[in-house]
Design a protein that fits this description.
It is a single chain. The protein is built from five helices and two strands, in the order ααααββα. It has helices at 9-20, 26-40, 51-74, 79-89, 114-134, and strands at residues 101-104, 107-110. Helix 2 (26-40) packs antiparallel against helix 5 (114-134). The protein has one domain. It is flat, with a radius of gyration of 21 Å. With 137 residues, the protein is mostly helical.
Length: 137
């Protein structure tokens, strides 16, 4: 059977495109993880979360924690001092539970379990802070 080089072109193209795709940043990973967790805890069985758009919308929130961790490390905060900062994040006044409401078809719905939503955001924000502090990209 003769060698047919054109059969390997799709495989080669796939490999090249895969090699060009960069790894997501720490901020993007945590934003996406939080988005999936929030979507899983979502209250509406007849709606679904747009993961891509929600992730993009969450990136600025997580970016500030990453930059703060990075800055704290540059400013010479010890791990213990950084842990104290993280403990401040856990203060209920830092990220208060909010009653999230969505309107669809002229009816307003209140999101279930704001405590769970706060916990998801906070845990992912703290992980992002530590990535910034530890210099993970």
């Amino acid at each position: 059977m003769p060698f047919k080089p054109y059969r390997s072109i799709p495989l080669l193209a796939t490999l090249l495109l895969g090699a060009c795709a960069g790894q997501p940043s720490s901020v993007e990973k945590h934003a996406r993880h939080a988005t999936f967790q929030l979507a899983d805890a979502h209250f509406g069985p007849d709606t679904r979360t747009d993961i891509s758009k929600s992730t993009k919308a969450a990136i600025p929130f997580f970016e500030q924690f990453y930059q703060l961790g990075k800055k704290d490390r540059q400013d010479g905060l010890t791990r213990e001092q950084a842990q104290q900062r993280v403990n401040e994040f856990r203060n209920p006044d830092f990220l208060p539970e909010s009653e999230q409401k969505n309107t669809m078809h002229n009816q307003t719905y209140t999101a279930d379990s704001p405590k769970k939503q706060r916990e998801i955001l906070l845990e992912n924000a703290i992980a992002t802070y530590w990535d910034g502090y530890d210099g993970k990209s």
